[in-house]
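Sequence in, structure out. First:
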Amino acid sequence: MNTARTRRWRVRVPRPEDFRSPAHAPAVAARLGLWLGVALAVCFGTGLLSHLAQHPPGWFGWPTRPVQLYRITQGLHVLSGVAAVPLLLAKLWSVYPRLFLRPPAVPARLLAHAAERVSILVLVCAAAFELVTGLVNVARWYPWRFFFPTAHYAVAWLAAGALLVHVGVKLPVVRAALGEPVRAVPGRRAVLGTAVLAAGAAVLATAGVTVPWLRRVAPLAWRSPAGPQGLPVNRTAAAAGVVVPADWRLEIRWDQARHALSLPELAALPQRTADLPIACVEGWSASARWTGVPVRDLLAAVGAPTDRPVRVASLEATGRYASSVLPAAHVADPLTLLALRLDGAVLHPDHGYPCRIIAPSRPGVLQTKWVTRLEVLP
């Protein structure tokens, strides 16, 4: 009796022939893999650009124009990641019967089979980590202890390497599958169309974070112009622990010299107004009209060099972004402002009062608020 009961509840391992749905056809899997690869490549490339813009090595220079450049690249980074979520799920659904194949008995083919399986495992785990943590990041919820940008950057390289290995192993199969007409089996076009519609709907539902004219039709956009002075805020003055002293003065240092300016003295200098976006690494962006003193003109007014990088220090005493470095190209750009006003009004404390940096084509985390010191570097 126990033997019969054991046989009754024995689970049979599924075989590939058990899956006859058009969703599992090689032609479908290859096309889904191609689209997913494009989405992941765009996401990886734009993420790499964002990393280089924030942590530029000596050989890299991030341009100041067009002024919307970082807004575009980071928007593409997040939206391609959003599109990759349904494409990854559809791709996994199309190929999971293959996971039940037994290893080949031929030793020469066993190595390729092992490389394929290992690359799939690493790729799926890395891609899932990147997409899940990326979506959690845009929601500004961090249930982990590691520093998100560092981990996100490292795992991205792991995913890219696994993807290259997987494509190299499967390239002959992919070529043959892409040459097979989709219409050969009924239902294939419906599967592919559903995946494309799901990816398109996900992008459309979130694109309003960076595409202004889509905000009204983007119900899942995670940022809206609801902060003080109509501009979103990630970190408030209270959260940063910033208290502006009554005798606040902007200190400018270079070589062995230094100069200090009060807020009225800054306001008395020639001002410039520019329409520039705040583009956050989380993908959201918003444009505003900023008024202030061009950093180049400010340095020239006190006799400091204008052709070197400048370290910008904040009243925020701690934190990874309590200071930033303006590259020489941004210092020289006349649109790089030490902003004093936003849309004609004095800066709100949450937007960096008494003054902040606003520069063209620059990550939002580097648009330092509550500026207290400019130091011209050698």
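Second:
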Amino acid sequence: MRASLIQIAVDPDESVNSRRQRAAALVREQRGADLVVLPELWPVGAFAYQSYAEEAESLDGPTYDVMAKAASDAGVWLHAGSIVEKAAGSGSAEGSSTLYNTSLILSPAGELVSTYRKIHRFGFDEGEAVMMGAGDELVIVPLPGTVAGTGAGTGFTLGLATCYDLRFPELFRGLVDAGAQAFVVPAGWPARRREHWTLLARARAVENQAYVLACGTAGTHAGVEQAGHSIVVDPWGEVLAEAGPDEEVLTVELDPAKVATTREQFPALKDRRLGLADPRRDC
């Protein structure tokens, strides 16, 4: 399976509508890929908290409209990154729990086939943590077994996570138990914690023996410099591709069979021990 990660730059002087059109053009350029991935909250900027309410949209709003056409034109499965979702019937005031950080997954026909609301909100009682509601569902997306233009290949099951989720390994264990072979992690990760980004991406791959496709942004979000350095890691923890700090597209070939092979050759997941008693306290 061929996957392309679009590490788009967020420029505060570029309008949201202009960035949508530019992202759509980049998606169309990936024709021939099977899966294309965009970052977290790229329309508005992950740290542009003051714009969340104004730029909130429904699942079938302007970002979906533009991305659906781009996915259809390119003939790709598209993880369109995430948007500030305004839930049906909700208000848009700051602090409303009816705003969500929601990822959109579109088919090559441009149909919205899945969504994922970010479970772990970042901010430590500020920003996203208080302005958005928390998702409460693990989401996997089984892709059909075709390689673009050939009709060949095997299926691939994606597990969905977003940015700060990367710090919570239990989420990824749940996705593995549900059948995930690869994790797609769009992000707006700050440059000052870039080393954590690459370390955690590799750790999630190694401990779950799964691919990790972690797609971040370049540029700045409300003055917060972004890490860039989108990364693709294989089930053995080897880095297949890594971007630099600027806008860039990574394209890699993924082998679904490598997940099964890794898990068979080094069957660590079989040694998990669940349901242990509470810790003993000796003093």
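Remark: The helical segments are 16-28, 52-55, 62-74, 128-131, 169-177, 194-208, 256-265.
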